[in-house]
Amino acid sequence: MINTEKSFNIHDYVEIFLRRVWYIVIPFMIIMAAAALYTFNLPKVYRASTLILVTPQKVPSDPPRLRESKIDSNRLGRRS
Fold first, then answer.
1. What letter does residue 75 receive in the DSSP assignment?
2. In terms of DSSP H, where are the helices of 1-80?
3. What would the mean pLDDT of 41-48 be, rounded to a whole number?
4. Average pLDDT for residues 10-25, to the nearest whole number?
5. Which of 12, 39, 49, 72 could form a disulfide with 8 if both were Cys (CB 3.0 to 4.6 A apart)?
């Protein structure tokens, strides 16, 4: 019969976990070993492809000249 009157504290839960830790560790180790075996036994396939499109640069025969402009001191926040 189950005793429902006893209250559990943290030490009881730790003891239960330590008794049942193998229910977690053993399946984890089996799954990790199976995944490692599967991974190492896969055929090694390396494949890469690329497409490079080269188009000539369109430069006008007569490029526009840069003009010199005066810097407006009011726009820079300076007061004269």
1. T
2. 10-20, 22-41
3. 91
4. 92
5. 12
- What DSSP character marks residue 80? -
Q: 73 CB contacts (<8 Å, ≥6 apart)?
A: 79, 80
**Which residue matches tokens 């830790």?**
21
Question: Are the beta carbons of 61 and 68 closer than 8 angstroms?
Answer: no
**pLDDT above 80: residue 1:** no
Cα 14 from chain centre: 34
Joined tokens for residue 61: 């025969």
* Residue 73 near residue 80 (C-beta atoms within 8 A): yes
Question: How many degrees, rounded to 5, is the angle at CA 33 between CA 27 and CA 36?
Answer: 140
Q: How confident is the model at residue 7 (pLDDT cuts 50, 70, 90)?
A: confident
Q: Which of 80, 62, 59 is nearest to 71 (CA)?
A: 80
Structure tokens, 46: 């390396």
